[in-house]
Amino acid sequence: MTMTDTPMLFSDLDFPRTRATDPPTSHAAADQSQAGITPLRLAVLRLIRNNPGVIGSELNDLYTIEVARDQAPRAAWDSPRKRAGELHEFGLVDVTGVRAGLTNKGERQFTINDRGLAALEG
Predict the structure, then answer these.
(1) Which among 112, 103, 44 has a CA at the least distance from the CA of 79?
(2) Would you tell me how many other CB atoms lie within 10 Å of the CB of residue 67?
(3) Separation CA 23–CA 90 (nearest Å)
(4) Over the stretch 76-90, which tens digit does the pLDDT of each residue have?
(5) Taking the alpha carbons of 47, 49, 51, 52 in that order, is the dihedral positive or negative?
(6) Which pLDDT value is given to residue 33?
(7) In this structure, which CATH number among 3.40.50.10900, 1.10.10.10, 3.40.50.150, 3.40.190.10 belongs to the domain 38-121?
(8) Residue 73 per-residue DSSP state
(9) Which residues are CB-neighbours of 74 under 8 A, at least 6 positions away?
(10) Cα(92)–Cα(113) distance, integer angstroms
(11) pLDDT tens digits, residue range 31-55?
């Protein structure tokens, strides 16, 4: 059986987790660690749904509140902003603009899209 004969099992919510040039061990590790949308990403996706136009630094602060309420898993302070960027790469949220954040640098504004809403329902 060749690669072209092998059935591809992907869902609409699948996304690339490694580069084609990465070694096979990286592909295997990525598949194991990214078996779906992680609880942290789901929590960030919910925050974006509930706060359209939110920027990364605001997500970090909002996420800290969710952790204190036991509504989200613990994570590094800047992790929610990074996860929002990943969710954008995966096509689950859109960048709707840029506005000043904590350091007056422009930060991307995130809004959930239909694929993101479907991910929350699934």
Answers:
(1) 44
(2) 15
(3) 22
(4) 999 999 999 999 999
(5) positive
(6) 47
(7) 1.10.10.10
(8) -
(9) 67
(10) 6
(11) 554 556 899 999 999 999 999 999 9
